[in-house]
TrEMBL record:
<keyword id="KW-0472">Membrane</keyword>
<dbReference type="GO" id="GO:0006123">
    <property type="term" value="P:mitochondrial electron transport, cytochrome c to oxygen"/>
</dbReference>
<dbReference type="GO" id="GO:0005743">
    <property type="term" value="C:mitochondrial inner membrane"/>
</dbReference>
<dbReference type="InterPro" id="IPR013087">
    <property type="entry name" value="Znf_C2H2_type"/>
</dbReference>
<dbReference type="GO" id="GO:0046872">
    <property type="term" value="F:metal ion binding"/>
</dbReference>
<dbReference type="InterPro" id="IPR036972">
    <property type="entry name" value="Cyt_c_oxidase_su5b_sf"/>
</dbReference>
<feature type="domain" description="C2H2-type">
    <location>
        <begin position="124"/>
        <end position="145"/>
    </location>
</feature>
<protein>
    <recommendedName>
        <fullName>Cytochrome c oxidase subunit 4, mitochondrial</fullName>
    </recommendedName>
</protein>
<dbReference type="InterPro" id="IPR002124">
    <property type="entry name" value="Cyt_c_oxidase_su5b"/>
</dbReference>
<keyword id="KW-0862">Zinc</keyword>
<feature type="binding site">
    <location>
        <position position="100"/>
    </location>
    <ligand>
        <name>Zn(2+)</name>
    </ligand>
</feature>
<dbReference type="GO" id="GO:0045277">
    <property type="term" value="C:respiratory chain complex IV"/>
</dbReference>
<keyword id="KW-0479">Metal-binding</keyword>
<feature type="binding site">
    <location>
        <position position="124"/>
    </location>
    <ligand>
        <name>Zn(2+)</name>
    </ligand>
</feature>
<feature type="binding site">
    <location>
        <position position="127"/>
    </location>
    <ligand>
        <name>Zn(2+)</name>
    </ligand>
</feature>
<feature type="binding site">
    <location>
        <position position="108"/>
    </location>
    <ligand>
        <name>Zn(2+)</name>
    </ligand>
</feature>
<comment type="similarity">
    <text>Belongs to the cytochrome c oxidase subunit 5B family.</text>
</comment>
Length: 145
């Protein structure tokens, strides 16, 4: 019985693939290109620019160019948003979290609001300031995981 199992294993192992993996067709994907550093050289301590990958590398390269890639500056609120003139919040995604501290600034604790495309306006329950999302992204861009 054991010899029969080995015999069947040998026949499966002896079969050649139809096409080598190295010449297989490239698969199409909508994934973004990988951000990989060149790595550290032998005998040297690698820097952040050498070994960072992904979003960390994207942020580091942006800082080298002098660009705030994640737009981390605070929202300039010089007035109280109303239903007729809400405060517009720029977004590249269909949903964005913002923190309202009231008008004038710091008049109440931070209230976190979730802005999205389904509602036109979003109102802070503490101060009544109204926010709307200025969506500039691609509405049909799906996440390809």
């Amino acid at each position: 019985m054991l010899t029969a199992a080995f015999r069947s294993f040998r026949t499966v192992a002896a079969r050649q693939p139809v096409r080598a993996f190295s010449v297989s067709a490239a698969r199409l994907s909508a994934a973004p290109p990988q951000l990989l550093g060149e790595g550290g050289k032998a005998g040297e301590v690698p820097t952040d620019e050498n070994q960072s990958t992904g979003l960390e590398r994207f942020e580091l390269l942006g800082k080298l160019e002098g660009v705030d890639v994640f737009d981390m500056k605070p929202l300039q609120v010089d007035r109280l948003g109303t239903m007729k003139e809400p405060i517009k919040v720029y977004s590249l995604f269909p949903e964005r979290k913002i923190g309202c501290t009231g008008f004038p600034t710091d008049s109440h604790d931070t209230i976190w609001l979730s802005l999205n495309n389904t509602l036109k306006n979003h109102r802070c329950p503490e101060c009544g300031s109204v926010y709307t999302m200025d969506f500039q992204g691609d509405a049909h861009a799906d996440h390809h995981h």
